[in-house]
């Protein structure tokens, strides 16, 4: 069945992005919104809009019953969950299907399987994808943990099987620390998650975050190469690139093939991302997790491959086979994305909701700005601080960085503080130019290089 | 008895408890010290503590738990 109308169960820039993809396919769009979001850009662009509840996300965008009701009452064929909110909620995917509608994403069972950290590690291992050295599954005793640590070495992470998003993790530097932390970690996990199950993973100290974009239709599975997302603050990506330009060709091939093998193992449908840590010294990569949705940073992949990932996931959800074969996916040039957040980087990233006074967006070849902003719009305080993504493409990485600098200088947003000054400083940094960074680089850099540069600017002013 | 208003420093969502299952920081009628936390404001997924900012014998909340607030809105009154 071809999809003729879509409910967008999200907000912000990704809702705008989905509406654009749907319009390009001639699909009618219905946008849900909370009471605080009645004047957001996606509501203005959609063919129809439905108020699904009060500002609090738990009562609106996370309210499965309210979203399903909106879909039924407007007679749409399908629901696009975007990212965040209900996008990786297997019960929501099941509820959409139970209502006789199409969920634009994988089956609920696949979301459930890949969302369980221990189960996902097992799937990866079955598909021959290297996982971070550690325990094969849940550990039943301290002795079993010690056996594992004996093989992997230290430092090692003690992780709660039911944890996630950085919660429920302790690090042991040697056997004595493991003996001390293990029972405590189990008691803590039981208290925090109602499940004392633990597993171990070796700490990769200087790793890059590299991830592979996958597409599947349930029978055919392809990759659209990789992205480099090592520049992170508090485990949140700040700046992304494609491709991961320092990756040796042989490693890239193995990495991308492993992601396809994993997609095949679960009969994947839709767009997804397989995340890895890459150890540059040993040239080994290790599976971290699968994100079963479109990702914030998907545009860098679109810029280098020319594939419209959001359109493709809609078409596949409607029952069409993948429109591209693996041999047709080629990389041209280099792309970078800067996440523009309503936060003040000079004041410890203090959130900065408020009214947009002026908005000037740079134009030109290879420049794209995905946003929900317009002049006069008031950003509500209730949701994520991401307000736009500046994406730049050029033939080479050096040319891309030059073009990005010009584009950032041409991007004017007044009325609120944004992270544009942070990105300008990164774009001018020699280590960023060389690509000499890893997942712990940005936080140190913010305390040293950026704090110093910001101090100097303040003195001049 | 004079009353002093405690205003929200930021727009966002007001919480009276430190975590979903915990007891409220303060109940109506409680005494407060200036540096006591009386609630949290969630703004763009980050949580900021709201201090009483004043010593008082009795606090009365004017905003419900999980209610949206504007910057400068009166959250509570403290009787001296």
Description of the molecule:
The complex is a heterodimer of chains A (461) and B (80). Chain A contains 15 helices and 22 strands. By secondary structure, chain A is an alpha+beta fold. Chain A folds into 3 domains: 100 residues, Rossmann fold (3-Layer(aba) Sandwich), CATH 3.40.50; 70 residues, Dna Ligase, domain 1 (2-Layer Sandwich), CATH 3.30.1490; 254 residues, D-amino Acid Aminotransferase, Chain A, domain 1 (2-Layer Sandwich), CATH 3.30.470.20. In chain A, strands 13-12-9-10-11-14-21-19 form an 8-stranded antiparallel sheet, with helices on both faces. In chain A, strands 3-2-1-4-5 form a 5-stranded parallel sheet. In chain A, helix 4 links the parallel strand 4 and strand 5. In chain A, helix 4 runs antiparallel to helix 5 and helix 12 runs antiparallel to helix 13. The longest helix of chain A has 20 residues. Chain A starts with a strand and ends with a helix. The mean pLDDT of chain A is 94. In chain B, strands 4-3-2-6 form a 4-stranded antiparallel sheet, with no helix packed on it. Chain B is mainly beta. Chain B has one domain: OB fold (Dihydrolipoamide Acetyltransferase, E2P) (Beta Barrel), CATH 2.40.50.100. Chain B has no helices and 7 strands. The mean pLDDT of chain B is 92. Chain B starts with a strand and ends with a strand. The interface between A and B is medium-sized, with 14 and 11 residues.
Radius of gyration of CA atoms of chain A, rounded to a whole number: 22 Å
* N-end to C-end Cα span of chain A: 61 Å
Shape of chain A: globular
- Counted up, domains of chain A total 3
Q: What would CATH call the architecture of the largest domain in chain A?
A: 2-Layer Sandwich
What is the strand arrangement across the widest sheet of chain A?
Answer: 13-12-9-10-11-14-21-19
Distance, first to last CA of chain B: 6 Å
Q: Profile the largest sheet of chain B.
A: 4 strands, antiparallel
């Amino acid at each position: 069945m071809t999809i003729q109308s879509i409910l967008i169960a999200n907000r912000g820039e990704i809702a705008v992005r989905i509406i654009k993809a749907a319009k390009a396919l001639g699909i009618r769009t219905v946008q849900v919104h909370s009471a605080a979001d009645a004047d957001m850009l996606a509501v203005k662009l959609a063919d129809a809009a439905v108020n699904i509840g009060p500002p609090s996300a738990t009562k609106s965008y996370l309210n499965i019953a309210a979203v399903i009701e909106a879909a039924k009452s407007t007679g749409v064929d399908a629901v696009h969950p975007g990212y965040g909110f209900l996008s990786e909620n297997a019960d929501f995917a099941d509820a959409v299907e139970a209502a006789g509608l199409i969920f634009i994403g994988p089956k609920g069972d696949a979301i459930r399987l890949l969302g369980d950290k221990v189960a996902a590690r097992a799937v990866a291992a079955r598909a021959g994808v290297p996982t971070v050295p550690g325990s094969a599954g849940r550990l039943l005793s301290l002795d079993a943990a010690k056996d594992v640590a004996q093989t992997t070495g230290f430092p090692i992470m003690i992780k709660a099987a039911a944890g996630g998003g950085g919660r429920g993790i302790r690090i042991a530097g040697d056997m004595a620390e493991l003996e001390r932390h293990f029972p405590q970690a189990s008691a803590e996990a039981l208290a925090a998650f109602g499940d004392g199950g633990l597993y171990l993973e070796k700490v990769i100290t200087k790793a890059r975050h590299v991830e592979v974009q996958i597409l599947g239709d349930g029978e055919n599975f392809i990759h659209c190469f990789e992205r480099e997302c090592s520049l992170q603050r508090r485990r949140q990506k700040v700046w992304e690139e494609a491709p991961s330009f320092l990756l040796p060709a042989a490693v890239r091939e193995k990495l991308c093939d492993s992601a396809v093998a994993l997609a095949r193992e679960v009969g994947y449908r839709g767009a997804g991302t397989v995340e890895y840590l890459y150890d540059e010294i040993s040239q080994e990569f290790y599976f971290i997790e699968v994100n079963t949705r479109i990702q914030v940073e998907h545009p860098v992949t679109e810029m280098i491959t020319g594939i419209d990932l959001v359109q493709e996931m809609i078409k596949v959800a409607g029952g069409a086979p993948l429109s591209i074969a693996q041999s047709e996916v080629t990389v041209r040039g280099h792309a970078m994305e800067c996440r523009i957040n309503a936060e003040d980087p000079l004041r410890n990233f203090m959130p900065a909701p408020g009214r947009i006074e002026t908005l000037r967006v740079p134009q030109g070849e290879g420049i794209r700005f995905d946003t929900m902003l317009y002049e006069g719009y008031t950003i509500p305080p209730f949701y994520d601080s991401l307000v736009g993504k500046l994406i730049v493409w050029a033939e080479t990485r050096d040319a891309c960085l030059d073009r990005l600098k010009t584009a950032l200088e041409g991007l004017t947003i007044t009325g609120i503080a944004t992270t544009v000054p942070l990105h300008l400083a990164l774009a001018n940094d020699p280590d960023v130019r060389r690509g000499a960074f890893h997942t712990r680089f940005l936080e140190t850099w913010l305390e040293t290089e950026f704090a110093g540069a910001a101090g100097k600017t303040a003195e001049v002013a | 008895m004079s009353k002093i208003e405690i205003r929200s420093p930021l727009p966002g969502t007001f919480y009276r408890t430190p975590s979903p299952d915990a007891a409220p920081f303060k109940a109506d009628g409680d005494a407060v010290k200036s540096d006591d936390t009386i609630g949290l404001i969630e703004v763009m997924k980050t949580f900021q503590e709201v201090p009483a900012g004043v010593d008082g014998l009795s606090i009365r909340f004017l905003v419900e738990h999980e209610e949206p607030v504007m910057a400068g809105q009166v959250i509570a009154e403290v009787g001296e």
